Amino acid sequence: MKKITLFASLALAVCLNVNAQRTPTHPLDIQDARFDDLPEYLESWLGGTMDRPKGVSEIDDQFYISRVRPLDRIKDGDYQIHSNVKRDRKMCIWVPLDDPTSTWKSLPRYCFEGDNFSLWSYIDIHGNWTSPWIRSTAGLTDVAHKNGVTVGCVMSIPWADYVVPSSWAYNKYAKIFYKLTIKEGSTYKYAAPLVKMMKYYGVNGIGVNSEFRTSSTAMSNLAEFFAVCHKEAKKIGWKFEVHWYDGTADDGQIRFDNGLGSHNSKIFGNKDNVSVDMMFANYNWKDWQLEKTEQTAKALERNSFDYYAGFDIQGRGLRNDHWGELLNRNISIGFWGAHSQSLIHQSATDDGTSDIAIQKAYLQKQELMFSGGNHNPGLLPSINTDCNLANASLKSFHGLATFLTAKSTIQQIPFVSRFNLGNGLKFYKDGKVAFDHKWYNLNTQDYMPTWRWWITDRNDQVTATNLAGLVKAELTFDDAYWGGSCLSLSGKTNFSRVKLFKTMLEVQPQHEFSVTYKSMHGTASHAKFFVALKDDVTHYKEITLPAVEAEGQWKTFNVTAEKLGLQAGQKVAMMGVVVENSPADYQLYIGEIALRDNAKNFNTVAPTIKTVQVLRGRYNACDFKMQYASKEEGKWEKTYNDEVGTWYYEIYFQQKGQDEQLLTATTSWAAYVVDAPMVSGADKRECRFGVRAVSPDGKKGSDIVWTDYQAVEYNQPLSDVVADRPVIKPNEEFTLKYLDEMVPAAQSWTLKKSVSGEVAATSGSGTSAKFSVAEEGTYDLVVIDNTGKETIVRGKVKITPEATGAVPQINSVTSDKTTEMTGKNVTYTYDGRLGEGKASRGLEISDPKMFRIPGDVQKGKSYSYALWFKADKFNHDKQGTNLINKNSIHDKWPHNNWGDLWVTIRPEWQGHKKLHAANEVSFNTMGWTAHDNPYEDVMSTDYSVTPGVWNHIVVTHSDGNMQKIYFNGRKVADHSFADSKRREDVALSDPRIDANKVADIFIGGGGVYKSGFNGVIDEVQVWDKPLSDAEVLEAMKGYKEGSVPANLKAYFTFEEAEGMKFKNLGTGGREYDGSVVVISGSGGESTSSAAYVDQKPDTDVLGFPGIEGSFDIKTKPTWMLGDGQISSQTDKTAIVTYAAPGKKNVTLKLKNGWGETEKTVEEIVEITSGVNSISELDAQSGFSVYPNPFVESVNMRFADYGRYTINILDATGVLLQSNIFDAAQGQVVNVAISGAKGMYLVQVLKEGKIYKTVKVVKK
Fold this sequence. Notes:
The protein is built from 16 helices and 80 strands. Strands 50, 52, 53, 56, 57, 61, 64, 65, 66 and 67 form a 10-stranded antiparallel β-sheet that branches. A 9-stranded parallel β-sheet has the order 4-3-2-14-13-12-9-8-5, covered by helices on one side. Strands 49, 51, 58, 59, 60, 62 and 63 form a 7-stranded antiparallel β-sheet that branches.
């Protein structure tokens, strides 16, 4: 039977695209409150008529309720790396923790990319810039509270708004301030309910972006209200804070850059009436203002560390001439930036815009920023006042550890860290993949190492001299013991002491330390576990980590405190690992470090499932939310997880008849799951949902609590269509079918010519359709589903020339005989199409790589850019994915990001005219300043790019500013943009453009808010004129060298690379050769230190199949014959001999660059023995085998010398083992035969030909 494997491989390509986004592609199924409803909510909360914000369900509200008790940081016995650092200095990062759309915050989701900030030990306040009053997702509050960090939210009032609180105010901010400051008698009515609400949800701070204008009376009332809130919070044991941007002063006017003084002392407050806890200075502070602030704070009997020197990391990066002045001032540090994402996270595109590239760069960026350019807070570079956010620049940054000491809350047993950052490429438990899906849930983040990375030598020192000889420590997503990441130690070192955790843990002799680790090269660990004690952190107690049983296999080593030499009541102040005498290829993964009291019973409460909401059901997966509770709570009562003996909850799913599956974990009392795997089938929809509470030691816990089985409705049919081959030839029959195995039959299937829309072929109702098309060209697929909805896949089908090759075909496989004896020749022949030819080569572009064309090849406003491209997947950022750009790193923001022109593949976007589907193409030019949005009139409206499909794009521009887009030869946009400008003209009046530098042309490559293209490009053309409709159709076909039109200035077919360059076949000449480059030294909005670096191109990839080229399509046959041996073969025949009798099957596989096919013919020939019995054969030849029957092995005596192959086959002729050796005449050879009792065949080959076959019996 013929078996085509292309359906499966193409389907996989579709699935791989699902979770590559920076923002999830799946819907946000968790609803939040509206900030505008806060006054009503406050009043309802106070009156007892509303349990939660308007429009928020009980299950969704759970994602905003923090269940982790805020922990205190170590004070008694605390220690520092550098004694000169001011211990009381604090830090606030007043930034978002969010995605580019300011939508997802820290909510759980099923993509890998997300802000998983992890250096909590150096900060005191997370300002949570995009979270409105009084809402913060529990993912952030839980992990922050675990690390002793307070969390805020922000009222972001527009610049210079006039905010006058009154009952008639139209301004929403004025309404809220009025409501908050209402008094009943002398009491602020809402002070107590506000802080009670904040404690219930776990929000500490209310932040005000105070650059508004108001009255002095309003300011006085606010200050007094804030002071009362502090006192009310103290009554209920809650840490309440106010975060205030130092703009609006006591008189209600905006007064920046004056430090703390008489103009703002009332809103700041004195020791008895604290109003503001974090006053954030504008960015132009000087030393005299800091000195004045210290004096004013002292007069108010306040701590001057409650005043924060502000840094605008969006506009200025880390550039500030006054860093050094902070060293001697009792002033804290605050970072702001920016509006949707933290600039620390957003700028992590140093090495590309894929999710893994961003995550790795973000880890590096945090470590360089806090620990300094050496990645080691023990060796800090000198003060650097001129750093931007690029990792290349941060390698010379002094590090915030110059000003801050690392803090820790680890002072309770059990202590467990699995080095899980709160997201992953897969979800692991106990070192095995539990859910093979990308995921993000910040509240699962473990205690991270206190220092990243404090590593010293044998003398406990780190210096510029020994730094390079220390082991490399990093967090990696390549593996995990639990969650999505683990600790990696790698590289050659004589001795490295890796100090991981600052702790204060009082131990008893029976307490048990454990380390779980694996060696990736060899079995030796080359490592020791160590601890140091309170007030003696330079003397260590160590124990060797034993070798692992097998390379790449997790091992857990346990040791009691007593065996480590610790006495009852001693306090462990540090934990870490020593690496000693490791080789260059050393790599040790550490998946868990823990200290447990195994005798402790946590009384972990089994949760009760309250509700399950199945959100969507697909043929192979479902999405759901689940709410559960470990305690019945009264109105406004909140239970912390430690009160019910719980660390986190595991979420399970089971389809009837299938294994139970662990999908995720969370600290919340609700869970959200996307893509719970299901086996397809209408009769397989019964599923149940489970939850298990896990104890604080991470080992014990409740049993899984299950719902009853319930039917999961199939209500989300997928419209994805796959083809049975990647290239199709004229008049060749091919099949298109739904990927979804349960989707109802479509009403109709139609192929239309992409250029004209003319119908080329139709097929009736069904879940698949067969077509045959005579004319070469590009065709759109139009499917009308069972509901009448139309789906169009642009360019889905290409009918391509025979000369470019095709997928092989097998018509028949035949044998020249129906029966034959063992050892005799049988000839197999096949008939079919080889599909050989010469195809075009493409250029593979993988972010951060991009194809660079010297920009001077095209000048002025009259131009056309054209290319064929096939996207592998999309990693859309906020504005989409770069396809074509003409810009320069030598310009300043924003021109370095957008430049002369940008052609972008967009995410779904709501325009003024309509909702635009994902993956439409936009074309913009300099002069368009609304960068977040495309120009709606110059978009490929209703023409979207499908991953895995070749499409042709042309953008044209005329001197009269007429802009056009052609999609697969069809004009889809045609509009005049009057404000279109050219960079060289704008440079005359805009100093942000470096007129001495050329803006080059780039295919691919990311930027700020834009991801880089991943896929293959071909036939890249740059013209110095706008092409006509007819010329576009000609350009799609490509040109032979020597017949290139005069106006085609740059032309690249990628058939041959000359070193690092591609020859420009256009009329512009060889000075405009193209190359593959990356941008080095870029990060965020500044590219001042960036450079273009050439990369080795990869053209060993098939290009557009409709054009001939130099890629040789050769077809290789593979015969699968069981015990048959091929003695010779030609292109379409194979001569075979068999050793054992029986009816034989044959399978043939043909494979070339376009694909493969295989065909199996069963019982094609019957092989018989040539003698009456094997014993007779043995006697005739003088070849003896004994004993027979045998127990473990047999002896073989050879009459002739020579090189022999001994094959052991089972009774059906399947080869089990094979040995080759040289035997002398009369030599006896012993051969062990493994396996069960029964008959075996011993086949002896001499010089590749069958010599003897003997039947033996194992007893």
